[in-house]
Amino acid sequence: MNDFDVKHNVESALVWELSVRKPEKIAVDVKDGVVTLTGYVESEIEKMDAERAVAGVSRVKAVVSELQVQVRVPSPDERADEEIARDAVNALESTSSVPKDKIKLTVDKGTITLQGTVAWQFERTAAEDAVKPLPGVKGVSNLIEIRPSFLAA
User: Fold this and answer.
1) Cα(115)–Cα(143) distance, rounded to whole angstroms?
2) Could you tell me if 135 and 86 are in contact, meaning their C-beta atoms sit under 8 angstroms apart?
3) Are residues 86 and 128 in the same domain?
4) Against a cut of 0.70, is the pTM above it?
5) Of 35, 89, 147, 153, which sits most exposed with the smallest number of CB within 10 A?
6) Radius of gyration of the chain (CA)
7) Using one digit for the tens of pLDDT, what is the confidence trace for 83-121?
8) Strand intervals (E) in the chain
9) Which of helix, strand or coil describes residue 70?
């Protein structure tokens, strides 16, 4: 196995190591089985896990880690999904034109997805209008279905 093959296997190991969040930010160089890693990771744990994953690759004789931990500072308007979800649930519950216990929501990276079934278009619109202006919300995907109660069976 030559250095090119080792490099390919190391890059694959970084992709498969789940704690390495952005393997594409890590450059790999191999010379005579000695692997040098350069680039950025988000935590010391991620750095250690990347180094451990690489050390476990066949034909790797040594690992030289020049990885730097780059702490990402959230912008002032950015909020955790958990906080957004809690506020969105409260907003739906406090909006009188949204039927109680009919709407479920998920939050992923600031985008809220609304799901459920309501009887009227105004209820669907009210649910979206209730969560859209919340701090940290980047978008709303409204998948609420309208099923008039006289058609429900």
Assistant:
1) 5
2) no
3) yes
4) no
5) 153
6) 24
7) 999 999 999 999 999 999 999 999 998 999 999 999 999
8) 26-31, 34-41, 62-69, 103-108, 111-118, 139-142, 145-146
9) coil
Residue 153 covered by a domain: no
Do 65 and 95 belong to one domain? Answer: no
- Distances from the Cα of 41 to the Cαs of 2, 14, 19, 38, 141, in angstroms? 27, 12, 10, 10, 31
Do 109 and 130 sit in the same domain of this protein? yes
| Residue 97 DSSP one-character state | T
Structure tokens at 13: 């190991």
User: Do 126 and 100 reside in the same domain of the chain?
Assistant: yes
Strand partners, 39: 26, 67
Count of domains observed in the chain = 2
| Rounded alpha-carbon distances, angstroms, from residue 152 to 114, 118, 148 | 20, 11, 7
Same domain, 20 and 49: yes
Which segments of the chain have a pLDDT < 70? 72-77, 151-153
**Sequence-ordered alpha helix ranges (H) in 56-120:** 81-93
Domain span at 125: 81-146
Q: What does the block give as tokens for 28?
A: 């790999």
> The tokens 């929501």 sit on which residue?
105
Lookup: tokens for 134: 């919340």
